[in-house]
Design goal:
The protein is α+β, with helices and mostly antiparallel strands and about 120 residues long. The chain folds into two domains: about 45 residues, no CATH class; about 55 residues, no CATH class. Helices cover about 35% and strands about 25% of the residues. The protein is built from four helices and six strands; from the N terminus they run E-H-E-H-H-E-E-E-E-H. The strands form two sheets. The chain has a four-stranded antiparallel beta sheet. A two-stranded parallel sheet has the order 1-2. Strand 5 and strand 6 form a beta hairpin. The longest helix is centred in the middle third of the chain and has 16 residues. The chain is elongated and about 50 Å long.
């Protein structure tokens, strides 16, 4: 998750406890399944997550400063994909509890990529 935060994680374990489930969720896992489990349950969780991801929206005319303040105030955990209209550049930001976890843009990663993205005119 540290190196590829865009890949969702579902923990499957044979040693399930409430504490382990809490730790998995706090660590960013999108799901937690105790063994034994039915494969249909895993499939349903994956489909539910993918539908939730597809429910994203589009923001127009929002400054990067206002956007960052909103993410921090709301303590959001999300993935934000951005496109600069003028150049067609793509970027992606990963937030965990309102804090920027990672960013990627034009082969750049981390803070450097975030600075690149927020220098765009949206």
């Amino acid at each position: 998750m540290e190196h590829y935060p865009e890949i969702p994680v579902i923990i499957i374990t044979g040693y399930s406890t409430l504490e382990m489930e809490r730790l998995a969720r706090e660590g960013g896992a999108i799901g937690y399944i105790a063994k034994p489990f039915m494969i249909d349950d895993l499939a349903k969780r994956i489909i539910t997550y993918l539908r939730k991801e597809a429910d994203g929206g589009t923001l127009h005319s929002v400054s990067s400063g206002i956007f960052l303040q909103l993410m921090e105030m709301e303590e959001k955990t999300c993935t934000v994909r951005l496109v600069e209209k003028a150049s067609g550049k793509h970027g992606i930001l990963f937030f965990l509890d309102g804090q920027l976890l990672d960013a990627r843009c034009n082969g750049l990663r981390g803070e450097v990529a975030a600075y690149e993205i927020f220098s765009w005119t949206m």
